[in-house]
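--- STAGE predict ---
source: upstream dedup step, 1 unique chain passed
mode: sequence only
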Amino acid sequence: MEFTLLSKGKKMRRLLIWFALCLTLSWWGGCSNKTTLSKEKTQTDAGLPDGSSPEQVSQEKTQPEPELPKELTYWKDIKAIIDHNCLNCHIKDGIAPFPLESYKFVKTYKDAIKSSVKERRMPPWSGAQNCNEYKNDISMSEEDIEKIAKWVDNGAPEGNPAHYKDSPPPPELKMSRVDLTLKMKKAFEPKRIPDEYRCFVVDWTPKEVKYISGFEVHPGNQSIVHHVIAYLAPPSEAEKYAKKDPEGNGYRCYGTAGGKASYNWLGVWAPGMPGADYPKNTGIKVEPGSKIIIQVHYNVPPSKKGATDQTSVAFKLEDKVDAVSILLPYANYFAWFRKDGMKIPAGEDNVTHDYNADVVGLISLLPIKGKKPKAFTIHSAMLHMHQLGKAGKLTSTVDDIDQCILDIPKWNFDWQLIYHLKKPITIKAKDKLGISCTWNNTAANQPIVEGQKQDPKDVYWGDGTNDEMCLGVFYVTCGDGEGNTEPCPTISDYL
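--- STAGE serialize ---
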């Protein structure tokens, strides 16, 4: 996410501001940055070499083995698990490569199913089991994983259809109403196979200030739409983004939308993710004349060549809310944004950059117009890296007590989700937010770009295919530190 839309003078001014702030915070003991390089498979802040965290390993050693039925069958034990966890994607003409809607298909792919759930690659939930609790957790329970493994090991018997009992419905995770739907201007045919990242600019149509209180995505063609991210371009930036997409065919955007909009996230969708309301009486402010950038990751197998898509995004809107919220991007802007600042050397398999800061204290020093928050409450969190990512973690230190917000021990670029906390976390002055990212920049872990596997080279922060990031994104509401909410400053106030 480079400041591609900023003048050099403004860029220098803002870098100087961050420099002064980091110096000040370091004097307080409130700002730290660390880089770790290790070719050996040693423990890092973000996780162990196998992708697990130390706490996870400890938990796995102490958890008792679940007691399973002696005779497991598809109809009695397995079908309900598959229906509940897999059929959002693994249906006929869905985004998944094969359906799992019948015993025939489940038996055919039984070994792949077993390995995927045992390694927690499926369902696509990257968060560690022992970090925090989330409202939208779609991970499979240890008991269900062991049931599938034992059933496969026993030959995957079908059993009697009369023994089928439907699984309990998943939690009601959907947007309660749709007030506005914005659609890509025209259908688009991805030409870059198998993967293409495209940003489409659409008009924000309301003529008065509105507050987004819910978000969902309606993919136009689920068989090729892999994931979607929506960004907000405020009126001051709208024309610049409109020029990027004058005909409605979109523009290439591998990392994010580019420029300031890259920091104004509105929501994320991946297969199986429903829409959702934001926390009650909260919302993101959107002004008339804004633009919405819809970033779509297309994954097009050879059999779908020539397919088109016209995805839309839907919003729940309010005329007013009690707490004006933002999606707050978090990174070591001063150190990592500068030239050579977040170096990931070629050939290194275990490179970690991490950062801890008193964010409330930092914001209090910025030249923000209007009232500055003395506290903010985190309701949701996500982590963003590119394809060299290996592991990542977001943490908080509140009243000198450390807490895990999000731990991703095995990074998967294709599954970047928003994690909605069951218990929000309030951050005050002198509390800290931490972010840690680990990368593997060896030859074996290079991305394939336009059909060519890349060679290792030194990598730094940036938007491009060959760049990397370490970015946390938090859905936050702001307050006065005494339990009262206040409007959050918009991201453009301090970038």
